[in-house]
Amino acid sequence: MKTEKEKMMAGEPYDAHGKELIEVRTRVKRILHKLNVTEYYTDKFQETINELCPNSAKNIHLEPPFHCDYGENIYAAENVFVNFGAVILDGAKVTIGKGTLLAPGVHIYTSRHPLGIKERRLWEDCKPVNIGEECWIGGHATICPGVNIGDRAVIGAGAVVTKDIPADTLAVGNPAKVVKKLN
């Protein structure tokens, strides 16, 4: 029988309020406190980032305040920069390609909740998000569960990305639509 965490990682319905997941999120909140409050201006800042995101490149930069659910499901490549106010709900894998930049206030969600109230009280599920290499995600953009963004794509400020965005394109609006081919 699968644990709730195993169900979550498999994209299956799971109970986010089970003891195991609450314990993991509590541990992560302690690390986030170090990142956002006590270690920001110290020589332990990068070490704290690497503790929070052990599956990311060692030079990932997270500008505080930063928030996530698990950290271990964030797979950021080399030279990824995440500006302040970012939120990554990483119940599923979030992949961010090398050299990608996230502007202030970007939110990336993997969690989905049922529309029906009875089901919503019992479970949620997660779908992975993949952001390609050398992308620019504009301020306060929202990336929804299951979205794939191609290499070198630019997402305009305030966009709500609900569907895949091809490489080398500019997407803007709510919902985000491709308005221009780049490069």
TrEMBL record:
Ranges of residues in domain Maltose/galactoside acetyltransferase: 5-58
Keyword Metal-binding on entry: no
EC number: 2.3.1.-
Keyword Transferase: yes
UniProt keyword terms in alphabetical order: Acyltransferase, Repeat, Transferase
Highest taxon in the source lineage: Bacteria
InterPro entries in the cross-refs: Hexapep, Hexapep_transf_CS, Hexapeptide_acetyltransf, Mac_dom, Trimer_LpxA-like_sf
Entry's Gene Ontology molecular function annotations: acyltransferase activity
One Pfam family cited in the UniProt record for this chain: Mac
Family of this protein: Belongs to the transferase hexapeptide repeat family.
Protein name: Sugar O-acetyltransferase
Protein's organism: Autumnicola psychrophila
